[in-house]
Write a structure and sequence with these properties.
Radius of gyration of chain A: 25 Å
Radius of gyration of chain B: 19 Å
Distance between the termini of chain A: 69 Å
Oligomer: heterodimer
Structural class of chain A: alpha/beta
Helix content of chain B: 55-70%
Strand content of chain A: 5-15%
Number of strands of chain B: 0
Structural class of chain B: mainly alpha
Helix content of chain A: 55-70%
Shape of chain B: flat
Number of helices of chain B: 4
Number of helices of chain A: 16
Order of helices and strands of chain B: HHHH
Largest sheet of chain A: 6 strands, parallel
Distance between the termini of chain B: 61 Å
Strand order of the largest sheet of chain A: 3-2-1-4-5-6
Shape of chain A: elongated
Strand content of chain B: under 5%
Largest interface: A-B, 116 and 84 residues
Chain lengths: ~475, ~100
């Protein structure tokens, strides 16, 4: 295969990757989109094999890795998607670092000059440190998401902070850049110490950058690491002068960046504020007067009566619902109500799960049709004309304090559940949400609390409706 | 104009244009599919496997080839796992009238 033919194949693969993302604009076209992605990847890999002299090692390793990937992908639970995605980001990061090391050790086999020209070295440095940051940062994010806190404090979902943290990070970043500069100017004989030193510092920095970020900010972190993994691939593409890697990497990089932005906006935080960390585990000072306020609580039977007599119902699911594995029970409840002629929809806040769009997948898994599931912006104007809102395991995303200047979450976009004619809230207890602040929604006259495990409560409601 | 464009400049051209394409395509992704978007992009970023295959393929086996081989293994987990799990998730997204068909 000539270099031109290879380039054309890579171009076709790049176009297929773009079509893969384009397909995701609607659930109808999404499966076809994924298929485009698979075909693009197959073309890219086959083309590369065709131009490579020795394929036995790569084929063998691909069989092993591919088998592991398929098994994991088949077995993973949908609630575990955030962990899986974090783990996969780390693999891309590590692969990028290993490829960079291979380039440094043997530039000729990549069709590059030896010793490496300065331009390639600069690109390698960037690709390597982004890859290393992605790797170690994703490992920490994986630990936090998988609840490995008991095995080590660095995996704790609470922010891990120490004094002078930002200073330490800054110094390490400077050392890393310094190592990179030394490597760029070093003769071949002396290139390894600065290169490996820089890589090691980048690994350490990846850990330190993620540990101060709390559990509540995980949707941002995971999107950010998604973006990094793309930039790492693009960086390797630069060093190898490979346009396919650059295009694919940039697509992924910009996708992750957009998702980070969307998540930040949904929490009314700036990216800088999230990255500097320390948020998401703080208990905060709840206003003192709330202790005396009373809530109205009712039984599942009361809830069933209200829901059964409503004309329109909106269900607001939160992560608590997924943890309690109550999606299937909720779907059954909705089917019951629908047959009674009640119009039921689900309202989804962008940060309802542990990663962007997580709640939609959890509902889809429970076979909830996607046309019943409505995004925040599209449903917010409907709350005031809705009879009953049923909040299940959500808290901060329906907190009307967000509309009150001076409150810690002021400005955060919320689902305007408090505007409905009646509000039902299921919670385990009166504990505060992630943001650690009280929720006036629970104390409204029109609100009825129903305490208990989401799954059991919903099952009792279904029974009461029969 | 007889001199050739530096590869780095050509790379930057591709890079900048690809970011624009990515930006516009991704804003069109429906929020309901943001999790599959992440798993698909994850699988796409495993395209570094291309670099890894080249690294693993010089005529003689050296340090570079071994590192490349490991990189192929790691990236392959993503390639296969990423597309597979996306397929699994996307198969779950059904409209009301599509239910029970599978």
């Amino acid at each position: 295969m000539s270099a031109n033919q290879t380039a054309i194949s890579y171009l076709i693969a790049s176009v297929l990757f773009i079509l893969a993302l384009k397909g995701l604009s609607h659930p109808r076209s999404a499966r076809r989109g994924n298929l485009f992605g698979i075909i693009g990847m197959a073309i890219a890999v086959a083309t590369t094999f065709a131009v490579t002299r020795r394929v036995d090692v790569a084929l063998g390793m691909m069989a092993v890795g591919g088998a592991i990937g398929l098994i994991v992908a088949k077995r993973v639970q949908m609630t575990q998607m955030p962990e899986l995605v974090a783990a996969m980001h780390s693999l891309v990061g590590m692969a990028a670092v290993l490829i960079a090391c291979a380039v440094v050790s043997d530039p000729l086999s990549f069709g590059l000059e030896s010793p490496l020209p300065i331009g390639n070295r600069i690109e390698l440095v960037i690709g390597t440190f982004v890859g290393a940051l992605t790797f170690s940062g994703s490992i920490i994010a994986f630990g936090k998401l998988a609840g490995l806190g008991k095995y080590g404090r660095i995996f704790s979902s609470a922010p891990v902070t120490f004094s002078g943290q930002h200073m330490v990070n800054l110094i390490l970043a400077l050392i890393m850049i310094g190592g990179g500069i030394v490597f760029v100017g070093a003769p071949s004989a002396a290139q390894w110490p600065p290169f490996l030193g820089m890589t090691g510092v980048a690994f350490l920095l990846g850990i330190l950058v993620i540990i101060p970020i709390g559990g509540a900010d995980m949707p941002v972190v995971i999107s950010m690491l998604n973006s990094y993994s793309g930039w790492a691939a693009a960086g390797i593409g630069f060093s190898l002068n490979n346009s396919l890697l650059i295009i694919a990497g940039s697509l992924v990089g910009s996708s992750g960046a957009i998702l980070s932005y969307i998540m930040c906006r949904a929490m009314n935080r700036s990216l800088l504020n999230v990255v500097l960390g320390g948020f998401g585990g703080a208990t905060g000072d709840a206003p003192a007067d709330t202790a005396q306020r009373t809530v109205k609580s009712g039984s599942p039977e009361d809830v069933a009566f209200l829901l059964g007599n409503a004309e329109s119902v909106i269900i607001v699911p939160g992560y608590g619902l997924a943890v309690g594995r109550a999606q299937h029970a909720v779907k059954e409840l909705v089917e019951k109500l629908t047959t009674k002629g009640v119009r039921v929809r689900y309202a989804i806040h962008p940060v309802a799960g542990r990663m962007p769009g997580h709640m939609n997948v959890l509902l889809a898994e429970a076979e909830v049709p996607y046309d019943q599931v409505v995004e925040m912006e599209d449903i917010n104007s409907d709350f005031s004309s809705t009879d009953v809102v049923f909040v299940l395991g959500a808290n901060d995303v329906v907190n009307p304090l967000a509309e009150q200047p001076g409150s810690p979450i002021f400005g955060m976009p919320i689902l305007e559940a408090h505007k409905a004619r009646a509000v039902l809230v299921n919670k385990r207890s009166m504990a505060a949400g992630y943001a650690g602040i009280d929720n006036p929604l629970f104390y409204m006259d029109r609100t009825m609390m129903v305490f208990g495990d989401a799954k059991k409560v919903v099952e009792s409601i279904v029974k009461a409706l029969e | 104009m007889t001199d050739l464009v530096d590869p780095t400049i050509a790379n930057i051209t591709v890079f900048v244009l690809a970011i624009f394409v990515g930006y516009h395509v991704v804003w069109n992704v429906t929020p309901a599919l943001h999790t599959p978007l992440m798993s698909v992009t994850n699988a796409i970023s495993s395209v570094v496997i291309v670099g890894a295959i080249i690294a693993a393929g010089p005529g003689t086996l050296g340090v570079g080839a071994i590192l490349g081989g490991i990189a192929v293994g790691l990236a392959a987990i993503n390639t296969f796992g990423g597309f597979m799990v996306s397929q699994r998730m996307l198969a779950m997204f059904k409209k009301k009238d599509e239910k029970g068909k599978h």
